[in-house]
Amino acid sequence: MKRLVSCIYAPVFLFGFIGCGFWQPHALILLFVIAVAVSFLAEQWLPYEPQWNCSLGDRRRDTVHALVNESLNALGLLILPGLTALFAFEGLWPRGWPLWQQLLMAIVLGIPLDVAQLLALAIALQLLLQHSNVDMRLGPLRWVFAWAPVHRFHHMKYGHAGDVNFGLFFNLWDWLLGTAFYREGYRMGAGDLGIGSRPDFPVGYGAQLRDPFRPVALSKEPSLPDELR
Q1: Measured at the alpha carbon of residue 128, what is the angle toward residues 18 and 171, in degrees to the nearest 5?
Q2: In terms of Cα–Cα distance, which of 125, 128, 120 is closest to 83?
Q3: Average pLDDT of the residues in 5-27
Q4: Closest to 137 (Cα-Cα) out of 14, 20, 3
């Protein structure tokens, strides 16, 4: 049963919830909440790395990050459909702007409100799949979709090996730009992830927020394991 779920989880999760969005376009927020719950339960029942589900004394900090950062991300996703709804009214369109500015506005918000809302849902679902701890078996889909089994390699601590990625939904841009990094059969463990040049990266919430604004000393990055060369 678990093997079957691991094979169908990612496509069923993404296209299932998007399909529900087409069917119930007025319940997108509820669908997203359900998707988060399903993702959490799947991580507990079918984890890729069980150790990643265990607290290292950082659960409270991660909860704060989730509440603050993900709320801001969700707000960002809502900007597009929100602006689309705002400017859908003829009276609010900036007719007094120069024509080129109106054209630019039309290019940026040039999609209907219902499409913008579904796009926001699709992006949120994709981000859940990219960073999920569910043991997914993608088969040939690993060459197409930037889901967790592929995206995890972009979070490794080994310097330039996979540390850049451009694909949100698909791996196409990374294949074209030479930033794709994937090794079939490599079982990633807890020790593979992180910032290799910062083994002393702060663990406190406030300290992590301050870290980008203070000078730091970088250590030598760990060498790439032979299996990844």
Answers
A1: 85
A2: 120
A3: 93
A4: 3
Non-local (6+) Cβ contacts of 170 within 8 A are: 144, 145, 146
Q: Which two tokens stand for residue 145?
A: 């979709």
Residue 56 has pLDDT above 90, yes or no: no
State whether the Cα torsion 191-193-194-196 is positive or negative.
positive
Please report which confidence band the pLDDT of residue 18 belongs to, taking 50, 70 and 90 as the band edges.
very high
DSSP-assigned letter for residue 194: S
pTM of the predicted protein model: 0.82
Listed in sequence order, the DSSP H helices in the chain are 2-23, 28-45, 59-65, 71-86, 99-108, 113-130, 148-151, 172-177, 205-210
pLDDT band, very low/low/confident/very high, at 120 (cuts 50, 70, 90): confident
pLDDT band at 94 (very low <50, low <70, confident <90, very high): confident
Q: Where are the domains of the chain?
A: 2-64+124-228
Distances (CA, A) of 28 to 85, 118, 121, 164: 15, 8, 7, 31
| Amino acid in position 223 | S
Give me the DSSP letters along 87-105.
Answer: TTSGGGS-TTS-HHHHHHH
The predicted model gives 2-15 an average pLDDT of 95
